[in-house]
Design brief:
Blueprint lengths: L30 E2 L13 H6 L14 H11 L6 E4 L2 H12 L5 E6 L3 H9 L3 E6 L10 H9 L2 E7 L11 H13 L4 E4 L9 H4 L11 E6 H4 L8 E5 L1 H10 L7 H13 L1 H24 L12 E5 L7 H9 L3 E2 L1 E2 L10 E5 L3 H19 L1
Length: 374
């Protein structure tokens, strides 16, 4: 084809696509432990709930999501004007830098963490300031390091809690200290809690109730993990009225279809017990699974803060990619964490499920270890 070609924005130069788990559906006979979804799956009547919206698809969806916001407000105890809704939390992750960062601004991200933060900040033209979480610190956030990086010119902060992939949960008091410090400097903070609802004690950990107190805070949630419906894109967020108004300016019109609004309203309004039961079950089963894995010589370490594990395989003398391949031969998919950065090539992530499937996972690990020792 003749012509000089079309030049894309400089911010897109060298920008690739992000890598995610949850791909076992492509392989027949493989059980997926690489994702962090509710192991109960969606509620049994999810098909009926979806079908109940069929009569409304002939008209445009409510762009304000008024009824859904009313339900979210009632269940989470946050004002309707403090709520935003997105096509998964990924849309909120994208809208945040588009609303609050100018090209060339610096965004403070922790590493390793969810790859979409960097991707969306770079698309907006922002530069990345990295706070490397260290294995010797348990991959936990050091507030003093955050302070130093903020003073170095960061104009926005992302925090994932529980952090993906490490599974670490930071206490609310620590996050409040960071949020307060950023508020004093006029720096917005995005706290991603999309995995937190599947952890017992959510009410004592979430920052959602703080959005009236801190006008720089955005808290994101999602139905993807908690209800195991990644194929239906529904996310929601909490923030001050002024921040909600600014992020609403950059979202896509009619971003949430009527089908999604109906599903979300029923699940949040009537089915949260489905999430709570899964959280309690996984917390109990995590201890059993952890004890079994450590007992057979797998370096599972301490019981996870959350419902998934992030383990270093150095003591086994293999990389995450090698362990992934060995487990696939046994019908199990884990997450090779090399995509989270070069430092993470020796790590894998896997999730907790029910007793039967956890036993199946541990049996596969034990068989893999026997093969390594042989």
């Amino acid at each position: 084809m003749e012509g000089r070609g079309i030049r894309a924005r400089r911010a897109l130069a060298g920008l690739g696509t992000t890598v995610h788990g949850g791909q076992a559906w492509r392989s027949e006979g493989v059980e997926d432990y690489s994702h962090n979804l509710n192991p109960f799956g969606p509620p049994d009547d999810i098909g009926e709930i979806m079908a109940s919206a069929a009569d409304d698809v002939w008209h445009y969806p409510d762009d304000s999501c008024a009824s859904l916001k009313s339900t979210i407000s009632r269940v989470f105890g946050v004002g309707e004007d403090n709520i935003m809704v997105g096509a998964g939390s990924s849309e909120l992750i994208r809208n945040f830098p588009n609303a609050f960062l100018e090209p060339g601004d610096k965004a403070l991200l922790h590493r390793p963490s969810f790859a979409e933060y960097e991707q969306q900040c770079r698309i907006a033209g922002a530069e990345i300031v990295w706070n490397d979480l260290l294995e010797e610190d348990g991959f936990r956030i050091d507030p003093e390091k955050v302070t130093a990086l903020i003073e170095g010119g960061a104009r926005a902060v992302y925090i994932c809690n529980p952090n993906n992939p490490t599974g670490r949960i930071e206490p609310r008091d620590k996050l409040v200290g960071i949020i307060r410090e950023c508020s004093d400097s006029g720096i917005p903070v995005f706290v991603d809690e999309t995995l937190l609802e599947l952890v017992p004690g959510y009410g004592d950990l979430t920052c959602s109730g703080l959005v009236d107190r801190y006008d720089n805070l955005v808290v994101a949630g999602s139905l993807t993990k908690s209800f195991a419906i990644p194929g239906i894109r529904i996310g929601f967020g909490f923030a001050s009225v002024s921040l909600v108004e600014e992020m609403d300016k950059v979202r896509m019109t009619w971003n949430i279809g009527q089908m999604e609004q109906t599903v979300a309203e029923v699940l949040i309004g009537e089915r949260m017990d489905h999430v709570h039961r899964a959280a309690e079950m996984m917390a109990a089963e995590s201890k059993v699974m952890n004890r079994r894995l450590n007992g057979i010589g797998f370096p599972a370490g301490e019981v996870s803060d959350s419902f998934f594990y992030f383990n270093q395989l150095g003591s086994l003398g293999i990389l995450g990619s090698e362990f992934k391949g060995m487990m696939l031969e046994r019908g199990i998919m884990v997450r090779d964490c090399a995509s989270f950065g070069e430092r993470m090539r020796g790590f894998v992530r896997y999730s907790v499920k029910d007793r039967e499937r956890n036993d199946r996972f541990a049996d596969a690990v034990e068989d893999t270890l026997k093969g390594l020792r042989a």
